[in-house]
Amino acid sequence: MLSILIFLPLVGGLAAALLPNAERRGGRDAGFVSLLFAAATLGITIGLIAEFDAGAGLQRVTDFTWISELGIHYKLGVDGLNLFLIALTALLWVVATTGSLPRETRSGSSSGRRRTSHHPHR
Known about the structure:
Layout: H1 2-17, H2 28-51, E1 59-67, E2 72-78, H3 80-100, H4 103-107
Antiparallel strand pairs: 1-2
Helix pairs in contact: 1-2, 2-3
GO molecular function: NADH dehydrogenase (ubiquinone) activity; NADH dehydrogenase activity; ubiquinone binding
Keywords: Membrane, Transmembrane, Transmembrane helix
Protein name: NADH:quinone oxidoreductase/Mrp antiporter membrane subunit domain-containing protein
């Protein structure tokens, strides 16, 4: 599961960047794809938090030999402090992506401009 949390943002970024006509409509399509991957990452993180045992130490350990001749391993694990940082990163990614979407995507309106009446000063 930790490997998914690492590589899902990479896949989402590549999918958004390589989306056909990603710049069309002000980048809304690419932003929406990025937001979907951000929400998926946040969902996986919430699942990780729900399954976390506070007294068990390092959990969700992934360990396999990557380059055996050099003794290099791919090893991941999560503890309480790391879990907080993972959750903070996933939450901030959703917030930042939502904030970067074109205004009409966020508000659902057809125009990104706010209409205000102008009253001249006397």
